[in-house]
Amino acid sequence: MEYSMAWLSYHRLPFYEGQEYFRKIYVQGEDEITGTAVYELCRGAEEMLGIRTEVIKWPELSGQDGKDRQDKGIYLLTDSNGPVGGGYRITEENGKIHIAAAESEGLLYGSFDLLRQVQRGFPLNGLNRLKLPDNPLRMLNHWDNMDGSIERGYSGNSLFFRSNTVMVEERTRDYARLAASVGINGVVINNVNVIGKATRLIIGEYAEALKRLGDVFAKYGIRLYLSLNFAAPMELGGLDTADPEAEKVRAWWQEQMKETFCNLPSLGGFLVKADSEGRPGPFTYGRTQAQGANMLAEAAKPYGGIIIWRCFVYNCTQDWRDRKTDRARSAYDYFMPLDGKFEKNVILQIKNGPMDFQVREPVSPLFGSLRNTNQLLEVQIAQEYTGQQRHVCYLIPQFKEVLGFHTYCREEGDTVADIISGRSFSHRICGMAAVANTGSDTNWTGHDLAAANWFGFGRLAFDSSLSAEEIAREWCECTFGTETQVAHAVCKILMMSWPAYEKYTSPLGIGWMVTPNNHYGPNVDGYEYDRWGTYHRADHLGIGVERGKAGTGYTQTYLEPNASLYEEIEKCPEELLLFFHHIPYTYRLKSNKTLIQHIYDSHFEGVEDVEEMVTLWQGLKGKIPDEVFERVKTRMEQQLEHSREWRDQINSYFYRKSFILDEKGRTIY
Amino acid sequence: MEYSMAWLSYHRLPFYEGQEYFRKIYVQGEDEITGTAVYELCRGAEEMLGIRTEVIKWPELSGQDGKDRQDKGIYLLTDSNGPVGGGYRITEENGKIHIAAAESEGLLYGSFDLLRQVQRGFPLNGLNRLKLPDNPLRMLNHWDNMDGSIERGYSGNSLFFRSNTVMVEERTRDYARLAASVGINGVVINNVNVIGKATRLIIGEYAEALKRLGDVFAKYGIRLYLSLNFAAPMELGGLDTADPEAEKVRAWWQEQMKETFCNLPSLGGFLVKADSEGRPGPFTYGRTQAQGANMLAEAAKPYGGIIIWRCFVYNCTQDWRDRKTDRARSAYDYFMPLDGKFEKNVILQIKNGPMDFQVREPVSPLFGSLRNTNQLLEVQIAQEYTGQQRHVCYLIPQFKEVLGFHTYCREEGDTVADIISGRSFSHRICGMAAVANTGSDTNWTGHDLAAANWFGFGRLAFDSSLSAEEIAREWCECTFGTETQVAHAVCKILMMSWPAYEKYTSPLGIGWMVTPNNHYGPNVDGYEYDRWGTYHRADHLGIGVERGKAGTGYTQTYLEPNASLYEEIEKCPEELLLFFHHIPYTYRLKSNKTLIQHIYDSHFEGVEDVEEMVTLWQGLKGKIPDEVFERVKTRMEQQLEHSREWRDQINSYFYRKSFILDEKGRTIY
């Protein structure tokens, strides 16, 4: 089936004043990535402007000299004094556009930036843009299995695997185009739960196919990474242990890394989920997480490989009766004592939030406390807990809040954005990773609007100063064109969507009121008596998990003044109130509403918001391609129906438990 | 792997005074079933007594004459004046045992009865037993799929199917031996949800294998039945409808039945789940259940085939907010108006209870109200909702209660047992069916003690006057031998088990507090906000479904005085109180306990009962084969652990909701 090109589905512009620039491209470098930049500029020119571009190779062109040339056109300049690390400068003067960068990746990103200006109909004269990527690593984590299924995948099957083979197809390249166009520079193709044949990806068996895949990525400046099975020495090597301190295990990994990197020289490294939810890891042998990670890092070091080690380690067989164990503090408790003990080529990948990818959680307390350890922020755009790409839930506003969070680790430059970019503690390998939301569906993301999360994650990781609104507008105009009514309505839907989802689902940061296993749809007690550490502790009088000093003490894992802020109920941010404290239903919020009335009100409001979203979308009939319009309309109607189910179940649950009437007398069952 | 023969695992008796009878068997008939009876007697004699029996064929032997013979031994007498319908008489006089019956099935059942006497060490002199089966049909329904899986199967894979083939193996015959030994005379081998290749079982493709299977069954007096797909004319015949009134559909079925019965002359007929839980049926075409059943019955009639039509028809997409729709009354509402409208070779199979196979439900109101329709009582020994063969739950006491229930349809002879046996309304094809609990596990039923339900169902269907204790004792002595301590402990465990399960799971007939889909383990709200019509309606003040006149009116589907009994809270049997009424937690039961205190107490008691059961079993170490002892011990320890989980979740749920303290101050979470 034909697939769309999402935000790279260029539309022919009827008239565009800047089209003359695109008649000639002057190009200096001859490397692959520069070639890609040229290809993309030509393709964009042809598809949007109907122009066949002349490409002029100009070996003599050098940074300063090039500026003196009088020919109009676009100049791709590799300038060793130019912006580094994928950064670029775009300037326009006298009919000439210069894209300058120290590395060819910068030229590629600059070219995509320039094309976005065209897509959005912006004038190019007088352009002067300097962009330096905020985060060195901007990664996608695919939870794809080798049988073609995707764990927590909501948009079809894997783009990388089918029937235990690695696929390299035309669409692979189009995936790379989309990813690179928003600045992604690293992709883990296989599930962190390394199951089935995936353990074998590191051995020769799949080397040829992986090399071809890696080459496709490399043309777009993307590094290939693999998830790795910590027990591989046993499963593949026939050893009787995977103990990271065992000499034979170290030797096995050293030999294996040699083979793997020899087969795949462009491999970036490995992502590891160890000692988590049944995965093997160093704890099995009484070793620390650092011993496990460092052993792998030493083996990968000679080849420039990095080890990305997930901090998602917790007790997943908790007794629900136990009120002292706290999953939220688990990563902190395991990893904080190890700060500074990791090799230089290890990065800790810290999931946000500290529990899992709920609609609302506090920021992980590891951010700010870890000072001597490379860090990646892990978010999820797959919407596992936020509507599974059947509900609209534009997550960039959530990520913005996380990035902007003040950890108080320093006087200034103390936000999460500062830390993961490397600014706070001078780290060099760090950044952001997102669990990806793509699959084989023709629109890539199941819900057409979910593509805004893919686009948005990349753009935000590249430029964390962008606002969620700006990103939404960019995505919308690139995807649907520049008609004001469309941009206005779609951006409004996107910006309403996360708050709406938060309103009609579990209240005030408590999370988890979902159907076990599949994580879709309401089930208030679904995880209440289970083993996953995910409780709400609702009773007749109140609800919430006591994580203050009187409870699990989790509040004290934060630096001051955050620790005190979270500890004191009156000061605690209300959107997180039930995450941190057990609160009576009769407690008065700052709005002067009782907690229970807030629950009722917000659930009615959330559904009203979805009704408004549906109306906004319906107003776009005829202005959006029919197929897309109908597809989104169907999903939004399902969302509306489903938001009512959430509202009624949540409200009924709390009414039946508290027996406090809704002040407005609305129907509760 | 070697499998056991369950209660036919004959043990060598060190000394048995009746062994001389077994030296010679005089046999008159030459048919297959009589041959089976001889085989079983010889096998029993060899295995229990170490005797090789001499079989003397004696064609001249006739009913009266035979009695005059002076040779000692066992005489199998086909006597046209003897007990009919599978009945038999066993008499002993002067060293001769006569087993007399009008049909050879009676001789087979009499032989198994005689062997049971030996197994249990009873003396045979002076024996005088006349047994007439209470129920003409004594059936097992297997929910086996052709891929080898079993829906709601808890003891391995199918005994009849593997990888879409029909299996006929040594074990098939042993299955038939076990079933026939307790009087089973009909077996439906495939799932009522006819999925995958099973629709094709009625066509030629599988005829040869099915014929071989049917022949194995026939030797043991068992008729083979198949579950049928109502949409077969579309799926197999390529028709565009399955409308029972469409001429082409009728013609298709007539042709198909001709082929099927021609291929399988011994086929008994078909079981049909139509218009239920997504299965196709007559409702699709605006036809009644009678029109659907009769169409099939007419097609099967020329070949003596019967159509067993399940009454398990209800709305499985109910809105949980809707308090008027009532799944419990659904079968009554659909089928009661059709009484007398079914063909003579149709039997309605009525599930007990009216909701599903919960630990406690009232009897279906169709019993007693339907007067002019053949009826089968459907029970389930697979323990789908009663511990899934991981918990001990001996269900014969429950079935006894159902059979003994007075419907008040007549002055006397009004019990369910009277109705389904045919006594009340002179029906000829009627009886009992059980959803089976067997599979490929070496002990047939996963839990060794679950075999008591298989054994017990057959025995009870054959002889409904037996008490649950008697059946338990029979099974126990046949299985484990006659040592008093073993029999005492095992029977006590069995007899405690259903009440214990009822105590520690959902209270007072409300049911359903289980994990959705798999139906194992507690989840109080698991089905509360779902579409299956299975609610408890618990709130802060009380719990229960109002099914009186003020509610769904279900109480009024019963004949008087039952209708009034169930209607009035004060008179309503307390074990069903929450099934029929919404009751405040503070309501005082006849024990003078409040409802909530009863919930707390019974849940603590249930766990204590299981503790006692575990202790009883542990006392049998050395007296039970080690392998069996350990297997049961492991399961009972899991049951104990799991009963605590039930107790704590149920008690915590109700405490958190009601905020009423346990009077005894025990730990509730």
* Number of distinct helices of chain A: 19
| Proportion of beta-strand residues of chain A | 5-15%
Strand order of the largest sheet of chain A: 7-10-11-12-13-14-15-16
**What kind of assembly state do the chains in view correspond to?**
homodimer
- Report the C-alpha radius of gyration of chain A, rounded: 25 Å
How many beta-strand runs of chain A? 18
Q: Report mean pLDDT of chain A, rounded to a whole number.
A: 96
Largest sheet of chain A: 8 strands, parallel, barrel
Gross morphology of chain A: globular
| Low-pLDDT ranges of chain A | none
Name the largest protein-protein interface in this structure.
A-B, 23 and 23 residues
Which structural class do the helices and strands of chain A define?
Answer: alpha/beta
How many angstroms does the end-to-end distance of chain A come to?
45 Å
- Helix content, binned percent of chain A: 25-40%
List keywords for this structure.
homodimer; 669 residues; alpha/beta; 8-stranded parallel β-barrel; 6-stranded mixed β-sheet; 19 helices; 12% strand; globular
Folded structure, characterized:
- Two copies of one chain form a homodimer.
- Chain A has 669 residues and is α/β, with parallel strands linked by helices.
- Chain A has 19 helices and 18 strands.
- An eight-stranded parallel β-barrel of chain A has the order 7-10-11-12-13-14-15-16. In chain A, strands 2-1-3-5-4-6 form a six-stranded mixed beta sheet. In chain A, strands 8-9 form a two-stranded antiparallel sheet.
- In chain A, helix 14 crosses helix 15 and helix 18 runs antiparallel to helix 19.
- The interface between A and B is medium-sized, with 23 and 23 residues.
